[in-house]
Amino acid sequence: MSAGRAHFAQLSGDEFRARLREALDLYVTAMGYPAGTAEQRAPMWLTHALREGWRCIGAFADDGRLLGVAYGYQGRPGQWWHEQVRRGLVDGGVDAAEWLADYFELTEIHVHPENQARGIGEELLRRVLDGLPYRHVLLSTPEGPSRAWRLYRRTGFVDVLRHYHFAGDPRPFAILGRALPLG
Ligand SMILES: CC(C)(COP(=O)(O)OP(=O)(O)OC[C@H]1O[C@@H](n2cnc3c(N)ncnc32)[C@H](O)[C@@H]1OP(=O)(O)O)[C@@H](O)C(=O)NCCC(=O)NCCS
What we know:
By secondary structure, the protein is of the alpha+beta class.
C-alpha cells in the first residue's frame, strides 16, 4: 500500500484489545516470525496494556487498516525486562541506577513491510514518546544492522549494553537508550 497518507492515533486499552489480533499479525509479519508467535504473545501484550504508564500509538490507512503500532510503559523493578537489563548492566559494569531509575520501556514498534520507508516508524516513535514525564527511554533490539537500527541512531539512541543475551533467547540483543524529551 503506498497511496494515501497514514493517520496516527493514540489507542485506549479497549481499542488495543479490540485490535489485538490485527496488531499481532502485523508484528509477526514485520519481524518475520512464525505465525504461532502471535498466540504465544497475546497474553503478554494484554498484560502490558494494564501496566502503569502504558501508551500505544497506531498508524492507520484511509480504510482503517492498521499500518503500524508502537507501545511501551513505565519500567519498574520486578518486571522481567527490567530485571534482565539490570543484571546485564551490573555484570557489564554499567551504572544501572542511572539508566533504570526513571524510564519508559519502548516495548514494541512495528510497521507493515509494505508500508515501511515512508516515515511511519519515526512518526510512531515520536508520538509514543511525546511529552512523557520520564528521564529516559530504553529499548532492546536484535543486534543490527537493520532498518530499526537506522531509525534509533537517527533519533539519538546510544548504546547502553551490546550483545546481551536475555534468559531463554539465543539471539544477541542491544539495549539502547536516550534522555527524554526526544526534541
Ligand atoms: C523499524 C520499523 C518500525 C521502522 O519503520 P519505518 O516506517 O520503516 O521506518 P522509518 O520511519 O524510519 O522510515 C524511514 C525510512 O524511510 C525513508 N523515508 C521515506 N520517506 C520518508 C519520509 N517522508 N519521512 C521520513 N523518512 C522517509 C527514510 O530515508 C528512511 O530510510 P532508511 O530506513 O533506509 O534509513 C520498521 O522498519 C519495522 O517494522 N521493522 C521490522 C520490525 C522491527 O524491527 N521492529 C523493531 C524491533 S526492535
